[in-house]
Amino acid sequence: MPAYMLVQVKVTDPDQYAQYTKLTPAILEKYGGRFVIRGGEKHALEGPEIPERIVLLRFPDVAAAKRMYNSDEYQAAIKLREGAAEASFIVMAAMNKPAVSRRLVLFDIDGTLLISRGIGREAKRRAMLERFGEVGDLDKHVFGGKTDWQILADLLAPFGKTSADIGREIAAYQQAMARHMRGIKDDYRADALPHALELVRKLRDRGDAIVGLVTGNTAMTAEIKLEMAGFQRDWFAVGAFGNEAAERAKLTRLALARAEKMTTASFDGGDVFVIGDTVADIDAARAIDAVAVAVCTGYTEREQLREREPDFLLDDLSSFMAAVMV
User: Fold this and answer.
1) How far is it, in rounded angstroms, from Cα 33 to Cα 27?
2) If 0-12 CB within 10 Å is exposed, 13-18 middle and 19+ buried, where does residue 148 land?
3) If residue 123 lies in a helix (H) or strand (E), which one and from where to where?
4) Helices assigned H by DSSP within 132-237
5) Are the CB atoms for 158 and 141 separated by under 8 Å?
6) In what order do the strands lie in the sheet with 3-11?
7) With contact defined as beta carbons under 8 Å apart, do 153 and 163 qualify?
8) Distance between CA atoms of residues 192 and 56, nearest Å
């Protein structure tokens, strides 16, 4: 049965306390723990003064929470906290859940499910020339974590285009980019990343998981890339795409709303998992209070991902079922 650990903290030395907080995510991950609440806005409705800092952690069970707290590595971390904060820890077993509770698993595409090896950049070049007559600094532009809408806004800003201008053009641009991508796809490869196909199939076979997409790709080009790498678009029940918003956080909200409409049910933040390979994916997970799962299969350095403090930091998708879907 899942368990929750409530931590209440009063920080007296922020700099020293920061050294402690750098160590805790990796320790939590080792014992199957993850952050449900970590700081954030608080409102007192009744009772005494609110603690300065409140953290809520989720573990597979009470025993796992106790193993983490009593572990050598966490006890060593506590030494750093001494003199920097006053803290209380309470662990509680969760109430029994129904035999099947719904979980929503939202995947990024590039760097998470597959590597597309240049077809996206070339299709963008052709579509931008067709629709805008300019490509800007396309060859050097870093796409990671951005929506196609945002990429266009960044590249075309020197030519007077605003994000609002891109919004008015994005539907026609999506059509043009998809047409160009289909025309050149035989000259490029898109390969599924290790364990990605296997994981998606396993999740689809479960009775409690809805599999979806949150990607910076447009809807039409996402489908082409997925098919090139061996995925089928209809494996993903819901999705939100880079032609629908410039900001990635809006896409996670949109995907969640679509899942709730489809199921006529609400999802607890602890039952929504956003998987991606960039810091933008982590931030987008935070926007809907979801579990942020970062994978080191894209172009973002592991340390950059760790600094953003995802709930889970995985080498690849092979450990997702054992480490995350507990």
Assistant:
1) 8
2) buried
3) helix 119-131
4) 148-156, 163-184, 196-205, 219-228
5) no
6) 34-38, 53-59, 3-11, 85-93
7) yes
8) 35
Find all residues with CB under 8 Å of 140, minimum gap 6, and list them: none
Give the whole-angstrom CA distance, residue 223 versus residue 322: 29
Segment (H or E) for 302: helix 302-307
Tokens of 2: 């899942």
User: What value does the mean pLDDT take over residues 75-97?
Assistant: 86
User: In what helix (H) or strand (E) does residue 57 lie, and over which residues does it extend?
Assistant: strand 53-59
pTM, rounded to two decimals: 0.75
pLDDT tens digits for 280-294?
Answer: 999 999 999 999 999
**Residue 34: pLDDT band with limits 50, 70, 90:** confident
At 98-144, the pLDDT tens digits run 434 689 999 999 999 999 999 999 999 999 999 999 999 999 999 99
